[in-house]
């Protein structure tokens, strides 16, 4: 599976209901053997709880837009209990419930196995950053 975007999330992103720098964007590490990406998924209710390895409890920091690319500070997942490997991350706009979230992007291409310590996802610092449009 290649990294991709969720259709409803992109619609919200390109519309007037969401702005990257000011939005409460969070992340969840995913075990893709328990979740299959679909661009039609729109909220965390579409992602089985068993597929969620760890979830950020706060918004990504230092979000910015430059040259058609989205960037943010690296994502730190503290003290992730030992368990199955995460091979994807979902970025979403936080809502008060799983149903109120708005899925934005599904990013894969890495593997990290939780061992009880912190996990830091380091975003690309090149021209592509987290996501690049165009």
Describe the structure.
- The protein is globular.
- Helix content is 6%, strand content 34%.
- By secondary structure, it is mostly beta strands.
- The chain has one helix at 7-14; strands spanning 4-5, 25-30, 52-55, 64-66, 69-71, 75-77, 86-93, 102-112, 119-121, 131-132.
Which tags fit this structure?
134 residues; 1 helix; three-stranded antiparallel β-sheet; mainly beta; five-stranded antiparallel β-sheet; globular
Low-pLDDT regions: none
Mean pLDDT, to the nearest integer, reads: 92
Q: What is the CA-CA span between the terminal residues?
A: 20 Å
> What sequence of helices (H) and strands (E) makes up the elements?
EHEEEEEEEEE
Task: Calculate Rg over CA atoms.
Answer: 14 Å
Number of E-type strands: 10
In terms of structural class, how would the helical and strand content be classed?
Answer: mainly beta
Largest sheet: 5 strands, antiparallel
Report the sheet-strand fraction.
25-35%
The number of helical segments is 1
As laid out across the biggest beta sheet, the strand order is 1-8-7-2-3
Fraction of helical residues? under 10%
